[in-house]
Amino acid sequence: MRYGMNPHQAAELIAGGPRVVNGEPSLINYLDALNAFALASEADALTGRVAAASFKHVSPAGVALAGEVDQTTAEAWGVVMPTDDSLLAAYLRARDADPKSSFGDVVALSRPADLATAAFLSTVICDAVIAPGFEPGVVAVLSQKKSGRFLVFEADPAAELPQREQRDVLGATIVQDLDTADLAAALPATPVLDARTRADALLGMVAARYTQSNSVVFVKDGAAIGIGAGQQNRVDCVRLAGAKARIWWLRRHSYVRELPAAAGMKRQDRLNWQIRFAGQEMTRSQLEELGRLFGADARARYDEKGWRDTWAEDLTGTTLVSDGYLPFRDNVEHAAEYGVTTIIEPGGSARSVDVAAAANEHGIAHVQTGLRLFHH
Q1: Which residues are catalytically annotated?
Q2: Is this structure's pTM higher than 0.85?
Q3: What are the pLDDT digits (tens) for 281-297?
Q4: Which end is more exposed in the chain, N or C (fewer Cβ atoms within 10 Å of the end residue's Cβ)?
Q5: CATH number for region 179-248+315-368
Q6: How far is residue 309's CA from residue 92's CA, in Å, rounded to a whole number?
């Protein structure tokens, strides 16, 4: 390997792993690629739809099934609208969920990479791609990125994983069973989950399975629009996922979409400005720069009262998936503020009755799976 977790740590791969087609990976590249491909391929198997994941630091920044790419996404990324069932559609939807976090990601594709997706990847900042194969010409396109250092992994979808996994941590060797629990079987067959919501629930469950715990995933129409990962308490996971989902939705408001073009500004810089604008999260110096870059109207709209809350009221139909049980009703109350209409969680908390009651009060369907999905 190029290095281990950090550049000062030497490392080597001693067994297994995907085939390296181009580039020289580090330990984190391997961790991201392996987890990202497991997520994308499992999402595909569960739903029968092409899937893509955008991974950063061993958690997904976004994951999505192929589906309709909305006008905001097409505008933001400067693409001609792809077909709804394409790999490119799946990755665009995954990357657009949280463009700030997806910057410099590892891309996972559940089907062999095609030229349309490779052409798009050549235009964005990403570090690696992993797929179960590559159509003719794709590797040549991808290998030109990063002065020839772009990482290309080829996964073997037919490879049989060992049923036990081992870790060595500071002198301790730990062995456990591989998490192979059947997510579809764990999700109850209930009339509150129509076909669309069930697909969203399954996507959220498989995303939680490969997200650093504690984690909460917000899914809407086959895309994870907010992921709260690695928090020490679950209500912060809900609030973080909800804040990301709210910003994703606010980016669809005309005030954000129609920020004037700034001469010479790169696409990612514009996306970052739109995210700051939508989330009302600018520093004092950024506020001064906002007016200079985008004009007095944009500066006034940033401070204008009410439009964010009014627009956010129309965000609904979102499914929340939690990797562990919801311990208190405040998790539900915060979820309701972000348009959640379905909650999928293991259940089993000492206060699950209170949680279920809160969901009922807010008109939220509450489904308990009995399956915890912690990942570290």
Answers
A1: 56-57, 214, 376
A2: yes
A3: 999 999 999 999 999 99
A4: C
A5: 3.40.140.20
A6: 27
Measure the CA dihedral 75/80/85/87, to 10°: -90
Which of 23, 221, 265 shows the shortest CA–CA distance to 129?
A: 23
Partners of 201 in the beta sheet?
none
Place of tokens 């720069």: 289
CATH class of the region 19-157: alpha beta
Identical fold at 19-157 and 179-248+315-368? yes
Return the domain boundaries, the chain.
19-157, 179-248+315-368, 253-312
Query: Which residue bears the tokens 């490119």?
Result: 88
